[in-house]
Specification:
Chain lengths: 330, 330
Amino acid sequence: MATIYDIAKRANVSTTTVSRALNNHNDVKLSTRKRLVRLAEEMGYQPNSKAKSLATRKSWSLGVLLIDDHDSGLNHTLFANIIDSISKTASRRGYELTFLSKTLADSTVSYLQHVNYRGFDGVIIANTNINDPNVKELIEKVNYIACIDQIHSNAICVNSQNEEGMKITLYHLFNKGYKRITYIHGQLNNYVTQERLAGFKETAKHLNIENECKYIEGKYTCPEIAYDITKKIIENGLPDAIVYSDDYCASGGLKCLKEHGVKVPEDVAIMGYDGVEIASLITPSLTTIHQDTDKIGEVVTENLIDSIENNRSNGYIIELPVTLVIGETT
Amino acid sequence: MATIYDIAKRANVSTTTVSRALNNHNDVKLSTRKRLVRLAEEMGYQPNSKAKSLATRKSWSLGVLLIDDHDSGLNHTLFANIIDSISKTASRRGYELTFLSKTLADSTVSYLQHVNYRGFDGVIIANTNINDPNVKELIEKVNYIACIDQIHSNAICVNSQNEEGMKITLYHLFNKGYKRITYIHGQLNNYVTQERLAGFKETAKHLNIENECKYIEGKYTCPEIAYDITKKIIENGLPDAIVYSDDYCASGGLKCLKEHGVKVPEDVAIMGYDGVEIASLITPSLTTIHQDTDKIGEVVTENLIDSIENNRSNGYIIELPVTLVIGETT
DNA sequence: TCTATAAATGTAAGCGGTTAGATTTTTATC
DNA sequence: GATAAAAATCTAACCGCTTACATTTATAGA
């Protein structure tokens, strides 16, 4: 690989001039700049990012932490979609994406150590339990950090309108005449679950159906558990509608209902959440709350990069809207 | 951030000694080594990967190219699952994963330039059209490169048993009594499609049902197109079975069949491919060919890293087996 | 033509590590 | 106690780039 030294030698100038010419500084005579740029191209010159980063203290790369308690990572469709959008946005802004892990060349280190080691300009935390002390440390110590669907005063928090989502859900069901509603929500220690439950309960109160609603703790994107819970519900008597924590769970539940001869939506209505592809592919297609994963990824990335480039490291919250997708299950 | 200079000063030794101590060289007295390691820890020292890479010419990072013609990226579940496994394996071996793009800090560059710029130790190409001259250049010029489901003499090619997969498919259908079979395959310019088609046709010949089989070009993971094609098939008369290019397409096809009152598998049997989660979640559950994404990711990553660490840059092919998953659609 | 000023270029240090080879210290041997 | 060999440590250069500051060259004004 040619270096700026090679170019400098060939052109009979100093490396300073080469560096400046290639970086488009305006204190290089136009003619020499052109000459050097052409020469660099000729020689197949490509800068070395390590050297550049070392000298400028800027890495042009972002770390992504995507580690839930169950290690599902990219297997979680919603987050795979979000990461995809993050990756595209970052790339458009000239940054690249690297996955954060606890393992480095030889040993196991904390996320914070990893970030310091790689010198990421910023970090995005997605689908990760921020109560993990390791993650907490990261959020508290790193300057430029953004979270998805979390709340932390030190981070740019891009959140889906979770309460609103449940409000929409409940109003939709209520308007269709479903009043006895069971909500199979996600894990209780999860921020999103808490928000959605709060939204659900508040709306239920408002609609005066609070006594007809039930809550069962399930697990996000775990159709098997949703299946089992649904089975119990069938045994104990069906409500008017079942709201699942997400589309995968709703699919698992639907499977169970069908297998037990329960007609959807005649015998019971169901709803999912997320609006990922599967919602429209199963039959009957799911009524669900769609989260705009492209938008989420874009907003979180743009905001993080803006904050990096403007040296603003204060945290704030952005809420993104969700939309109702009406399918055949309600 | 503390540097080895800080440590050296505090400990009254040279940076050489610090560097050696922290890297566990055995020409440092045990007592000083311990002292320095403790001190480093005390001072919260974390090496700087840029400096380290610059000096050692090793980046401990891999690039991943995941760009299909339609830019679906991580939205493609099969590949999201594979990338997830790659990421975990890489991390276990002390490497990290960065997405390759055509955009760098300021301008648009070729993949090769990107790789040279970042100094990846190796590159993994997944779900990417290697006929793209840009990709071709990459494969030809980079030393340590691995592909998934591609063939190139310069790369470690980890391929699924595509021909075998279709053989299993066809035997399964044949044994169940289905003989008039329509195969809605993926894009013809795709290596995987070519392999599978070849496997299909050869087996059909062998089973002596070649004249009863039909082939229609569809598009991978595009349920809408599968839906439309299925509709036409219904109009033109159903075969005994339809084989789709993948589970998403099969889901789209199934949706169409159901909507038109066609009973599966009574009126027509269908099969998917990949064995991703959706296959088991829809009703009836899909009979499909399962690809072990964990294994694929693991094998491709381990092989690439081995080749990097042993300085072996020759290409070879590894075929990984697929398995039949029998669902309710056959 | 001679300055003063602006423009262009160069010198050298620094970013944070590694490492060949030199030097010093320790240990073993007689 | 002197000496050779081994062990421990240090000096200094290097990886490839950036940049503050110094120096040279060009330009304009008197």
